[in-house]
Design goal:
Helix content is 41%, strand content 10%. The chain is an alpha+beta fold and 265 residues long. It folds into two domains: 18-152, Four Helix Bundle (Hemerythrin (Met), subunit A); 160-262, SCP2 sterol-binding domain (Nonspecific Lipid-transfer Protein, Chain A, 2-Layer Sandwich). A five-stranded mixed β-sheet has the order 3-2-1-4-5.
C-alpha cells in the first residue's frame, strides 16, 4: 500500500505533549466512571459493556508500555502482558489510573526519538505515545457517550488526532483488513475543519492511498467533508455519522461511501 508522505510534523497538526495528554485523558476517563454501572452498554463499541471498555483501554496502555520497555525492533510475537486487573469492578477506576502511571514510567525510560518498530509510519518510540493518546481519548468519549455525559475534546488534540488517524490508516490492514479496499483511479477526499486551520487531502490510487501533502492547501477534491476538529475526529473514528447535522459533505457520494465503509479500525 502506498503512503504519500511520512512527515513527522504533519500539515494541520499542532505539536503536542502526547505523554502529558495521556495522563489528562485518563483522568477524564476515571472521572466519568464515578458511580457508573459496569454493565452499561457502549453503543459506539457494539457488544461491549463499560467494564469491557475500561479493561481494553488499560490493557492497551500497559501493552504499549511493555513494548516501549522492550525497545521492540520487530513485530511482537505475543500480546501477553501482566495486566494486574482487579477481580471486582470497584477496583477498575484505580486500575485505569494506575495504567497511566505505568505508561508514564515507560515514557521516562524511553526517549521519544528512540528508534523502534511500530506498525505505523513513524518508526520511533513517539509513535506509541501518540497512538496511546488517541486510543485513550476515543474510548474516554465512548464511555461518556454511553453514560450520557458531555464529551468534549480539546481542539488542538482533535486536530492532531485526525492527522494521526489518516497518516497511519494505510498501514492498518493487519487488524483492519477492509482498509485494503481503499483504492481507486486517482480520486481525492478532503477533510477540512470549520473552526480553524486543518486540512487533509487523501488520495486514492490503484495501488493504495495516503495523505497528499503537496495538494493539501489548494486544489479541488472529488469529495469534501467539513466539521469542527472534534466532530471530524469522531467522524473518522466512526463515532459520528457523516449524515449528522454537525458534518457537511459534498462531491462524489460513492467515493465517500467507499471511504466510510472501509476506513474503520
Amino acid at each position: 500500500m502506498t503512503m504519500m508522505s511520512s512527515d513527522r510534523h504533519q500539515l494541520g497538526a499542532t505539536p503536542l505533549d502526547h505523554r502529558a495528554a495521556i495522563a489528562v485523558e485518563t483522568a477524564r476517563f476515571v472521572t466519568a466512571l464515578e458511580n457508573a454501572d459496569p454493565a452499561t452498554a457502549v453503543p459506539s463499541c457494539p457488544g461491549w459493556t463499560l467494564a469491557d471498555l475500561v479493561r481494553h483501554t488499560g490493557s492497551v496502555q500497559r501493552w504499549f508500555s511493555a513494548l516501549l520497555h522492550a525497545r521492540l525492533q520487530a513485530p511482537p510475537r505475543t500480546r501477553d502482558v501482566d495486566l494486574r486487573l482487579p477481580e471486582q469492578w470497584d477496583g477498575y477506576a484505580d486500575w485505569l489510573a494506575e495504567s497511566a502511571t505505568v505508561a508514564a514510567e515507560a515514557f521516562a525510560a524511553t526517549g521519544p526519538d528512540l528508534p523502534m518498530w511500530a506498525w505505523g509510519v513513524d518508526q520511533h518510540a513517539r509513535f506509541w505515545a501518540r497512538r496511546m493518546l488517541f486510543e485513550t481519548l476515543v474510548h474516554r468519549v465512548d464511555a461518556e457517550l454511553a453514560l450520557g455525559l458531555p464529551a468534549t475534546i480539546d481542539r488542538a488534540v482533535a486536530v492532531d488526532g485526525i492527522d494521526e488517524f489518516l497518516v497511519n490508516l494505510p498501514f492498518a490492514t493487519s487488524f483492519a483488513p477492509d482498509v485494503a479496499n481503499l483504492r481507486g483511479p486517482d480520486r481525492t477526499i478532503r477533510f477540512r475543519t470549520t473552526d480553524g486551520d486543518g486540512d487533509w487531502l487523501v488520495r486514492l490510487r490503484s495501488d493504495g492511498f495516503g495523505l497528499d501533502r503537496s495538494g493539501a492547501a489548494t486544489g479541488a477534491a472529488d469529495a469534501t467533508v467539513r466539521g469542527t476538529a472534534a466532530d471530524l475526529l469522531l467522524l473518522v473514528y466512526g463515532r459520528l455519522d457523516r449524515e449528522a447535522e454537525a458534518v457537511e459533505h459534498d462531491g462524489d457520494e460513492d467515493l465517500l461511501t467507499l471511504w466510510f465503509d472501509n476506513s474503520a479500525f
